[in-house]
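A student in our group prepared the protein record below, which I am reviewing. Here is the record exactly as it was handed to me.
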Amino acid sequence: MNISKYIIVIGVVLASCNGAKDEKNTSEKTTTEVTTKVENDISTSSFKVWGNCEMCKETIEGSLKVDGVEKADWDVDSKIMTVSYNASKISIDQIFKNISSVGYDNIALRGNDSAYKELPECCQYDRKK
């Protein structure tokens, strides 16, 4: 009976080790609101940004056409922004600021009120509290 217990324990240990990543340049960090993956010095973060339509998408993504951002994609349906960036050139905090400066609430910051008021009517979403 003792041998079968050891076999089960060894099986569980081996199974959990097989799921571990063995890549040297990859790491992943998840919080309840932001998921960030780092691979070869490029961070890719996903988080929620409020908005409504394709015009919102254009403005939100346009706010991230800056040095250090490799790619920015905001999904209209899910409201999830996925941005790939060089963290040595731009921080996630600056990314949040850029988005909020054009009037859009995100998980970290409320959008700039005067910029929000200037958005087209179709882009004026229900604001965060």
